[in-house]
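pinging the channel bc i need a second pair of eyes. not urgent but kinda urgent?? the chain im working w is below, pasted from the shared doc
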Amino acid sequence: MKKAVVVFSGGQDSTTCLVEALNNYDEVHAITFDYGQRHKLEIEVAKSLATELGVKTHKVMDVSLLNELAISSLTRDDIEVSHELQANGLPNSFVPGRNILFLTLAGIYAYQVGAETVITGVCETDFSGYPDCRDVFVKAMNSALVHGMDKQLTIKTPLMWLNKAETWALADKLGALDLVRNKTLTCYNGIIGDGCGHCPSCELRSNGLNEYLNASNEVMASLVGKLQ
């Protein structure tokens, strides 16, 4: 029996990964992290989507310690999400150590439930400048987990080399375009669906959607073909 654990935030990318996993694995477990993020609504959206999609087990884990350590516009209400980069060259929405912690805990959970795969929606093509969304980081984490637990485990990143238009194409191919568009929460201002339209996350999401929806038949076929 093929089992997978999906790191699931209830956003566009992780929901697309979850839908794909449900098509490809016999047993799928989702894990959502409550780290004191800017919008608690994320947790409720994740719960609702997991129920709607029929996920076998959805674990919500309290990792609020991260909020105490990682100062970011996504962990502090008094810091406005900005398009400007910080002095270190990273956006102020970067949460240091977040994916290190998430993938470590997801790997432990996979060990517990007997899953051989952990799936995460990180992406280097549209990674917003976050260093913990890069392929080199994921491969390093994968190696650390395998050596640290003496268990064969693969971290899969289905979106790693897709841009946002191609991610929308994947959702469409999976028959989940409307669900992802209308029921996920990606907006930094906490608005479900198309969001506020002006935060960095919404701009990336809407630009990709418009590119996909407005593509010519030839371009659209090319986008979908890349996913074969």
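so The radius of gyration is 17 Å. and Strands lie at 3-7, 27-34, 57-62, 117-119, 154-156. — does that match what u expected or am i reading it wrong
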